[in-house]
Amino acid sequence: MLKQIYLITIFLSALIGLYHFKRSPFHLKGFALLLVLTAIVEIVGHFLKNNLWMFNLFGVIEFSSIFLLYRRLFFSHKIKNLLLLFAGVTALIYLSNWLFFQGLNTFNNYTFAFSCMLVTVTVLLFYHQLLNDNNPEPLLRVPMFWISTGILVFYPCNIFFMGLLNYIMHVSMDLAKQLYTIIHILNIIMYSLYSIGFICSATSRKSLS
Amino acid sequence: MLSDISEITLIILSGTFLMFLLVSTIVFFVLSYQKRYLRHQHQIKEMEQAFNQELLKSELEIKDQTMNNIAAEIHDHIGQLLSVIKLNLALNPDPELKETKNLVAQVIKDVRSLAHSMHSEALGGKSIAELILTEVERLKKSTTLQLQFQQEGDAHTFDPQTEIFLFRIFQECINNILKHAEAKNVFVELIYGLSLLTISITDDGKGFEIDTLKEGLGLRSINYRAKLIGAKLDVVSSPGSGTKISLEIKTDK
User: Would you kindly state where each structural domain of chain B is located, as residue ranges?
Assistant: First the structure.
């Protein structure tokens, strides 16, 4: 049931993102497209028997895109370079994990957990930038605040489960399925916050015009 | 095995819960910090605005007081000296002095009118239409400007303070035209509508780019006075095509 609600949430969020696509700034367009891709991957993955290779491949796209999209939002060149480094390191460790360690058909939990940490750092840096803005806008009206909060709810909270996923699956498949409830709840929260962000971007445009 | 499962479950659930708690705290902190920061910024802005308003008010009061002093000096000192000259001339029956006597009488009249237009208290009791008309007549005589005055509709009266403020705005506009516009013709129009008085002053001077205009004391005092009496000020101008300043005020004020 939760899985269905999660799929509906992501589907709706992608639709809202696409609805406002034309008038959105580049980074929001990027997030909307990433969301569409996530929705496709999740739906296809739902019907595939062995879908781990697909989620592993998608992981590198997902994390690199997040770093590159955030890179456009920062003013500091140091942070821009750091995010470029994050994107490169993520791609590199995913690739080495596929080639030398866990392969494509085992969930790459270490790289996922590591990338989650990098994403958390990115969002915290973004918060820091928002708070030091010389012309601050109320955060609740900033679309990227909502999206960043969604990211901050999902990725760091996922570290424990995803980091131990392979071990849990090895110990008990049933337990893994039960604990997946956490991921679904976090996903629902994250994509609902994404939707608010997209709606917020449309309303802030209206108030400007 | 069973203890393994419960341990894993405990680690994951508590870890995730703690992480969620941490994230929530961060988000809450960020939101409340920014809220406080915005409130602080707003307070600073309000204080700055209040300070600027107070400063402008003082500047206007000083300006008004100076004008009153000059008006009193013109009226009491120069006016009195001119009256003495007039009396002395009247004692001389020489017919050649007739023209001089007339000129002195005219100068006394003009000086008195100038002193009255400068002194706030002397303006009381007259409607804005009368005040503007008197000023236009005075300016016609004392400047090279070609002034035209037109009034439409039945005149309403405002409270004396508003009348004086409206008149001072008009004077400031004319002052700006004389100082900066290099205009030849000025058209002054007063339209009394059902609930609105519109005063417009149009000149054919060099105009200016509104966006690049720096507000001097003149324009600031116009804005400030308009704001104080709840009037709407509108300035239309562009380089080479003159300037139109319109002032709208509700007549039920």
Answer: 126-253
